[in-house]
Amino acid sequence: MTTILTVSGVLLLISALLITIRVLAGPTSLDRLVAVDAILAIAMCGLTLWAVYSRDTTIAPAIVALALVGFIGSVSVARFRVRDDR
């Protein structure tokens, strides 16, 4: 089980690094918005992975709070987004 958790953590770390590149070099604001949402999803997965590893369920409200913040942030940015000029 520890091997699976370690491999999962490494894959989450690699994907977070690749998505960080998209945040920094995204050509449009929508690319950056999707990348930030993906980083938030990876953070939630990382917290869930830690909860499985430590067998501690008290972190579940933090995961739910991150999901709500990500949803509200995405909706608000998408709602009030201005056009990117090239």
From TrEMBL:
Keywords assigned by UniProt, alphabetized: Cell membrane, Membrane, Transmembrane, Transmembrane helix, Transport
Subcellular location(s) of the protein: Cell membrane
Transmembrane segments: 6-25, 32-53, 59-80
Main location: membrane
Membrane topology: Multi-pass membrane protein
Keyword Cytoplasm: no
Keyword Acetylation on entry: no
NCBIfam families hit by this protein: PRK07948.1 (NF005930)
Protein name (database record): Cation:proton antiporter
Organism name: Rhodococcus zopfii
